[in-house]
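Hello again, I could really use a second opinion on something today. Take your time with it, there's no hurry, and the full record follows here:

___
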Amino acid sequence: MENIDKLLNYLKNRSIEAYLCINIENSNRSESFYFSGFTGSLSALIIDSKNKHIITDSRYYEQAIKETEYELIKLDRNKGDLIDLVDKQIKKYKKIGINYSKTSYKVLNGLISRNEKIQFVDVEKIISEIRSVKSDDEIEKIKKSVEIAQKALIEALNYLKPGITEKQFVARLEYEMKNLGSERPAFIPPIVASGYRSAMPHGRASDKIIEYGELVVIDFGAVYEGYCSDITRTVAVGEISDEAYRIYEIVERAQREALNKMKAGMTGKEIDALARNIIEKAGYGYAFGHSLGHGIGVDGHEAPVLSPRNTEEIRNNVVVTVEPGIYLLGKFGVRIEDDVLLTDRGAVLLSKQDELIII
């Protein structure tokens, strides 16, 4: 696998003998899946220049054999836990790479204390860099995920009308995504926030009844063969106020500015500023509190981040979201989010931009 080759090359250049990934009841499922294809909730990957091993328990023996090309080491939980078996397998190494941010303090500290002769090296940064640059195959999976999400929204909007609750609509949206081939929602649950609640950037669907004249922020994504999409649409239920129209136009203009000018090689800060400057000049900088976007892939949120704090250059073939928003507390909020492949030549839009949707 290309991903593993990149990882092994990094390890070799730093005299790191092996990579260890520990996933305990989905604590690091995405990294385990990324490097092996394994979708189970319990696993440990041990990768070196000659061997690839996966440890899991009896729930997943057959699944590990079918989903991966790794040599299976069977864990018998009646004789010990995952870390006990990992500990036995790593004794031969002197230097091991592990993602500290995805390994619990208890597990990491336990491994270090039991293996004083082994040097554990944090490889969080390189893992993020490897995962951020997408292969052609990964891009195609994200495109399919986007397609499923967009088709599902079209179907679900037939159900959106005054009188239903936010929870009822989100249930319909999840059903449509599943019906069209999504493995699960990229975010559980998707965000559906109407009226005054739309000013909550991450407002979970509630029992609030959607009313005529309100804006509804819908933030959702599908998952196809392990890869996520992430889209936000702000929908008008009937006639909305002039102020709401004006805010929508500002957000739309800010996103368009970023999409037209962003490209690989720019920093996250520079890309964020393309949209943020439009919103600030319109007088609403105070109401745009989050970053412009983030990477997507196996996780719905991953590196890189398009924010004022990120001064690192964004690499070629990275897929990111572009999601400016304005949130007026007590009134309403507007966010528009699309998925973009960033290249040296500019941004390639993966999701289809929509005008303001009026139900």
